[in-house]
Design a protein that fits this description.
It is built from nine helices and 13 strands. The longest helix has 22 residues. It folds into two domains: 167 residues, Thiolase/Chalcone synthase (Peroxisomal Thiolase, Chain A, domain 1, 3-Layer(aba) Sandwich); 151 residues, Peroxisomal Thiolase, Chain A, domain 1 (3-Layer(aba) Sandwich). Strand 12 and strand 13 form a beta hairpin. It is an alpha/beta fold. Helix 3 packs across helix 4 and helix 6 packs parallel to helix 7. Strands 1-7-6-4-5 form a five-stranded mixed β-sheet, with helices on both faces. A four-stranded mixed β-sheet has the order 8-13-12-11, with helices on both faces. It is globular and about 55 Å long. Helix content is 29%, strand content 23%. The structure holds oxa(dethia)-CoA. The site of oxa(dethia)-CoA has 21 residues, from helix 2 and helix 6.
Length: 336
């Protein structure tokens, strides 16, 4: 690619709701145990929104944190991309609502894209295109999900997994000519889309025949098949992306994967032959927070001293669609 402008990751932030639901708490809903959940998923607890709190509130805090770290002002942002699988409303979109709440003003585009748990990687690819072509200069990406609002809390096979959370990134045209995206690839296979579905309640015009099946707006998941897909397709894809970019896994400092299941994280780790200190996992405390899981793990990893900035990391995501993607990025000092 020639004349593509380089991208700088300028700031990253996150926010999780305060309310904690432990595995033991879930025993009040159905027959389960901390031992069953922890051994199969690595999850001990998750955060959930409560009362009037939604993905907008936590997304706003994550966005403010990312903007502050980036050194930009809200007015410098010239495009906003929301990456939400479970926003509180279809429209106005998460991005438009946050544009208003951040006081960014009406002259910049704001839209959501839906790639479920791969949303952040997809949004980063779109932002890369915009910045690369010089269409927009400084872009805010917000991945925020209130999964708890679309979880079927009677289904013990899925409701154990998900949690709520938000992550945000400010990316901008790099002034020093250094591109923070070393490689980035995204993919999808709609033919296996039925593995994770959320079907809205719907109706036909009352003057015509009604549909036989009407969704209830809750997540329906074939956990076993998603697991098989995740441990076969994703590790190989990550490895291929690294190879195609003429890089070596051992030269990259960290793996920051989507936090869906500790065993899936370990499958990717094994494929890359990484030691535990290179792999960032916080699924134990947050469960699967969809597209927000990578930025939450990244910033928390820095806060806890597990990640030293001035390094490189593989980010990889996968989820409903089915969608998946992987990026190798440079993590500059001061971004979070
Ligand atoms: O972003 C992508 C998001 N999705 C994923 O990453 C999901 C990937 N899949 C998984 O993580 C696993 O499939 C789960 C952890 C969701 C489920 O584990 P599994 O080993 O596939 O369990 P299963 O659904 O096959 O159920 C095995 C047994 C069943 O009992 P029987 O029929 O063998 O008697 C279930 O009824 O475990 C039972 N079971 C439970 N038992 C206690 C299912 N959920 C629970 C539970 N507590 N919460």
């Amino acid at each position: 690619m020639t004349n593509i402008r380089p991208l700088k990751i300028a700031g990253i932030g996150y926010c999780v709701p305060k309310t904690v639901i432990t595995n033991d708490d879930l025993k009040k809903l159905y027959d389960t145990s901390d031992e069953w959940i922890y051994t199969r998923t690595g999850i001990k607890e998750r955060r959930v929104v409560s009362g009037n709190e939604t993905a907008i509130d936590i997304g706003l805090t994550a966005a403010k944190n990312a903007i502050e770290k980036s050194g930009f002002k809200p007015d410098d942002i010239d495009c906003i991309i929301g990456a939400a699988s479970a926003p509180p409303q279809l429209y106005p979109t998460l991005a438009c609502t946050l544009q208003d709440k951040l006081g960014i003003g009406g002259n910049v585009p704001a839209f959501d894209l839906t790639a479920a748990c791969t949303g952040l990687i997809y949004a980063l690819q779109v932002a890369r295109g915009f910045i690369g072509l010089g269409i927009y200069k400084t872009i805010l990406i917000v991945a925020s999900d209130n999964n708890s609002k679309i979880t079927d809390w009677t289904d013990r096979g899925t409701s154990i997994l998900f949690g709520d959370g938000a992550g945000a990134m400010v990316v901008t045209e790099s002034e020093d000519g250094v591109d923070d995206i070393l490689t980035l690839n995204i993919s999808a296979d709609g033919s296996i889309g039925q593995l994770i579905q959320t079907n809205f309640p719907s109706q036909c015009c009352p003057l015509v025949e009604q549909a036989q099946e009407v969704g209830n707006g809750k997540i329906i998941m074939n956990g076993k098949e998603v697991y098989k897909f995740a441990v076969t397709t994703v590790p190989k894809y990550v490895e291929d992306c690294i190879e195609k970019a003429d890089m070596k896994a051992e030269d990259i400092d960290y793996l920051i994967p989507h936090q869906a299941n500790q065993r899936i994280i370990e499958a990717i780790q094994k494929r890359l032959n990484y030691s535990d200190d290179k792999v960032i996992s916080n699924i134990k405390y947050y469960g699967n927070t969809s597209a927000a899981s990578i930025p939450i793990a990244l910033v928390e990893g820095v806060e806890q001293g597990k990640i030293k900035l001035g390094s490189t990391a593989i980010l990889c995501g996968f989820g409903a669609g089915m969608t998946w993607g992987a990026a190798v990025v440079r993590l500059r000092k001061g971004i979070c």
